[in-house]
Write a structure and sequence with these properties.
By secondary structure, this protein is mainly beta. The N terminus is likely disordered. A 5-stranded mixed sheet has the order 1-27-26-25-24, with no helix packed on it. Strands 2-30-29-28 form a 4-stranded antiparallel sheet, with no helix packed on it. The chain has a 4-stranded antiparallel sheet with strand order 3-4-5-6, with no helix packed on it. The longest helix has 15 residues.
Length: 367
């Protein structure tokens, strides 16, 4: 798993004014781990209430305990992996809970997944059939299957020098034990425009254009958040689809400040690859921001869609859709907080940005 005045119609203003209190969830503080981190991945809750997550800036894997405040570093980061060493990693980027007490740690750099138990012990490297290029499998259910979005379908792989412009992106389901692969969903392809890097001009996905998001629940139920329609579709484990209901949203304009911020981020990230800072960079931008720029599924059967903001200092707001594809409520997070995971008994995990730019892991509760 990726933000940003508004013009309301009279009807929409009236609808918001009359919205019942039940449609607006309230979050309360539930604790914060004392340690600080560089950048955080998602957060998963273990059966005993502890959590696991990764620091994607410092490239470390952690287990935290909100009752004691203790944070343990799991495994070790290395530059060169030893063969059959599941306790080593290069770039731990995502965590998933499989069946029982088995945890999957996705290594972005090594393009592999290692299995751990909830006690924090490495078990083995998970063998996964390579499909759709050398990119990691991020999503898993508890039934022995992994899920991968086939970006190779639009990024290349065909005749050299010939652009591929498919109108959809397949989502692949991989049976881990046998390597069997089938397509279970399709996402809308991104919108393209011309991008300039120095003297070179090439096609690139438009920044802030709507994108579809995909996710899967522990029982194999899949969902697709449709960026152009602002709706959530569901696929049951037996292959039956439920089409969600579009939800009205405010189209926020993409400002010059938004564009400057994105280009500054590109230059900053390019430093590590030796990109000249004076290089001319022109990106294609959409005129308005999408209805959401991030999505995460709740294991209980909800999808939370993160609204873009007109002001980066504003609190994030999430639209919650149920398993029937109906909008249920909106949730406003505390300032500087963003969704990172879910737990039992209404627990919501958040990544908190501190004043010094570091990140903290917090537990919130939904009343």
């Amino acid at each position: 798993m990726i933000k940003l005045g508004p013009l309301y119609t009279v009807a929409l203003i009236a609808g918001i004014a009359c919205r019942s209190a039940e449609s607006q969830g309230v979050l309360t503080q539930g604790g914060r781990l004392p340690a600080r981190f560089g950048a955080l991945s998602n957060t998963i809750e273990l059966r005993d209430g502890r959590v696991m997550f990764t620091d994607t800036r410092n490239k470390l894997f952690f287990r935290g305990d909100f009752r004691t405040g203790k944070v343990d570093t799991l495994g070790s980061r290395v530059d060169s992996l030893q063969q059959n060493a599941p306790g080593q990693y290069r770039f731990p980027g995502w965590v998933a809970h499989l069946a029982g007490d088995t945890i999957a740690l996705v290594d972005f750099s090594a393009v592999r997944t290692t299995l751990w138990n909830e006690a924090g012990h490495p078990l083995r490297v998970l063998p996964i059939k390579e499909v759709a290029g050398q990119t990691p499998v991020l999503l898993y259910d508890t039934l022995g299957r992994g899920y991968k979005i086939d970006y190779q379908a639009i990024l290349g792989g065909g005749e050299p020098g010939r652009a591929i412009r498919s109108d959809s992106i397949p989502v692949l389901r991989i049976t881990l034990a046998t390597g069997r692969v089938d397509t279970i969903a399709r996402l809308a392809a991104p919108e393209y425009g011309d991008a300039t890097f120095g003297e070179e001009v090439q096609q690139a996905a438009k920044v802030f254009a709507p994108n579809d998001f995909f996710g899967v629940l522990p029982d194999g139920t899949a969902w697709v958040a449709r960026g152009k329609e602002n709706r959530v579709d569901w696929r049951s484990p037996d292959g039956k689809w439920v089409r969600g209901q579009p939800h009205a949203f405010t189209r926020l304009p993409v400002t010059e400040a938004d564009k400057e911020r994105v280009l500054a981020q590109v230059r900053e990230q390019g430093k590590q690859f030796g990109m000249p800072q004076e290089l001319k960079i022109v990106y294609p931008f959409a005129e308005t921001k999408p209805p959401f720029d991030f999505a995460m599924g709740h294991p209980a059967g909800e999808v939370w869609l993160q609204r873009p903001r007109s002001d980066e200092r504003a609190s994030l707001v999430y639209d919650v859709f149920d398993r029937k594809g109906s909008w249920r409520r909106e949730i406003t997070f505390p300032q500087n907080a963003s969704l990172s995971g879910f737990g039992a008994n209404g627990a919501i995990y958040a990544s908190i940005r501190n004043e010094d730019g570091s990140r903290s892991v917090a537990k919130l509760r939904l009343k």
